[in-house]
Amino acid sequence: KDHLSHRLVSLGLSPRGAVLFMYLFSLCALIGAIVLKNARPIDAALLLVQFLFIFLIIIRLMSLRDREQAD
54-60 contacts: CB < 8 A, separation 24 or more? Predict the structure, then answer.
């Protein structure tokens, strides 16, 4: 039970909410890919920073959950 969906549920999302979150993230990645097709370099850099920021937030939330379970 170390998949992303299980980790999101352990963070407090419902199973349906976890799946919807993953769908939303995938939709954002799809839109980002479409935008990148005709993007200027600065637009591409900003989009990359946005995705890295979202990824870091998810990693941080998962590490906080792991600490709480260890205590």
Answer: 54/25, 54/28
User: What is the block-wise mean pLDDT of the chain (71 residues), using blocks of 10 residues?
Assistant: 81 89 88 85 88 86 74 67
Neighbours of 8 (CB within 10 A): 22
Provide the whole-model pTM. Answer: 0.65
- Residue type at 40 in one-letter notation: R
Cα–Cα dist 14/39, whole Å: 36
Euclidean distance between CA atoms 1 and 45, whole angstroms: 34
